[in-house]
Amino acid sequence: MVDALFAVFHRPNFLTFVIIFLWGFYIMVTRYNLVKKLIGMYLVQTSVIFFLVSISAKKGATVPVLLSTTDPVQVASYANPLPHVLTLTAIVVGVATLGVGLALCGAIYRQYGSLDEQDILEKLE
Amino acid sequence: MSHQLPAILFLLPLFAAISMPVVCLKHHHWSRPISVVILAAMVPFSILNLYNVIRHGEVRYAFSGWSAPLGIEWVADGLASVILLLLSALGLLGVLFAGPTSPKALGGRIVHYYTLIMLLVSALTGIVFAGDLFNLFVFLEVAAISSYALVGIAGGRAIFAAFRYLILGTIGASLYLLGVSYLYAVTGTLNMADIAGKLPMLLDSKALIGGLLFIFIGLGIKMALVPFHAWLPEAYTYAPEPISAILAPLITKVVLLAWVRIIYWVLNATIVIYDIPILLLVAALGALASVIGASLALAQRDIKMMFAYGGIAHIGIILIGFGQGNPTGFAGGVFYLLNDAVMQASLFYIAGIAFCQYGVKTIDELGRIGKQVPWLTGSLIVVGLGMIGLPPTGGFFGKWYIILGALEADDYVSVAAVILSTLLTLAYFVKLFECMFRQSSTRSDDQFEEIPFSLKLTMGVTSAAVVILGIFSAPIVQLLLNQALPPGL
Questions:
Q1: Interface mutation target, options B133, B178, B187, chain A, most CBs of A under 10 Å
Q2: Is A2-56+80-124 assigned to CATH 1.10.287.3510?
Q3: For residue range B32-54, what is the model confidence (pLDDT) as tens digits?
Q4: Tell me, what DSSP letter sits at residue B163?
Q5: Coil, helix or strand for A70?
Q6: What is the model's pTM?
Q7: DSSP codes joined into one string, B22-53
Q8: How close, in Å, is residue B11 to chain A by CA atoms?
Q9: Residue A56, CB half-sphere, CA atoms under 13 Å: how many?
């Protein structure tokens, strides 16, 4: 048990990921304000992106551009570009979702005059 | 040209979606003919694609010539081609249905509506064809974002339902992406066929199990599997009629197809992880969903809400078919998926017509129109028979093959769940018809306007399809058994 706890501290990136993810999730579940819910949602998305970036980090590696075409390729000295490309796409998707969410928030505010979930639910009854 | 068909089928609606806001800026009324033409063109192309796949085997489409593990790959196999034909046909009917109902239901946002529908259809095409886990994620999100926007397009109570849909859908998408990054960390590849080749050596890996769990929960939220179904009924009930008529038959079924693809094509179907066979889990979740969904439907009085819960129950029945791990159950599941999509479309057309033409929202008000509108009543009876699963309709044969598959696998719990779900479906349709034909509420002096032709057409075609799928069930199931089975089944 204690060993497992210490093993966690050898991988601070995983720990950070878990903290950000659960923090965002906690905000989404407990807050009634819709914009705060969106902030929590964005934290959850960002934590997954952070995870994807952190597992692809490589010590002492450089950008994946071949410097010479004659020397044999040293795979260990180049970073893998794929996770970063995936991350870019995931960020774009996340921003688009957030945009739609904020637009819906704006529409809700214009219609109900409030962003508090409980107020809105009372008005819906 | 025939090997370019997957790309053509995807690009047609995508280009329409991109160009529509510009082309229709001044001429709002052009948007509907453009959408109808595009979707009508997709139907023959998808028939051609199905024919091509049956004749020459599956097509693997490598984008810009980069072949499989490095590039992005699309797979047009038998299953994908059948679902694609269903998708384009139901998309066309949905747009035809939207014509007369949209001016009232959507306010002035006609161009927005058709643009988003085109985007949705192209994203669903992408989900059907995707042979790469990350590509699948992108298309899932494009489809999801356009459906959030569609649900909230007309304001009213639907905006709040759309917001909840967005929050839950995004949790699902994040979990799916997390699972994909776990799988990527373990296997170092994203291509489905490539992962399938590497998984057998990695079955003890905890990261693999965690990743699969996240993927299943994420997709489970997107396809409204029972513990995660909370977003669906409200979103589909309060969404404007032309929108729920397109979303209800398509979204959950296409996501379910993606799930089946991951279970059968990426994982091996007979896989056992820590003594738990995955398929048993699928069948158990399906049994739970089919019973709980149908019982919740029984408790509803709002027509669309009742049909939405009915759809949730049918997702469960389809999963029972897929969870048996034998060809009969698999083909039965695919066949029931086709039937369920057609029946859901038909039910939401009927509910939409009842509301848009006659202002009927709950089953108590249905008695008002009972005998005056024979078209609507007739279609509702035919589709009701299909939902319950009585012999001439496709619903019966779908359930029949699923039960045969479950008997073959000695899974009597699943058989009991299908039968119980059928009885509950019978109960809520009896409740519906009882309200509809109650004598006391019928007044003969009400004036009923005629249903517009395109509404009659869509309703008639889908109701007829419920029966036609039943009559031709044997050749269709044979085709599925020959062409759509996963490897190793």
A1: B178
A2: yes
A3: 889 999 999 999 999 999 998 88
A4: H
A5: coil
A6: 0.93
A7: HHTTT-GGGHHHHHHHHHHHHHHHHHHHHHHH
A8: 20
A9: 25
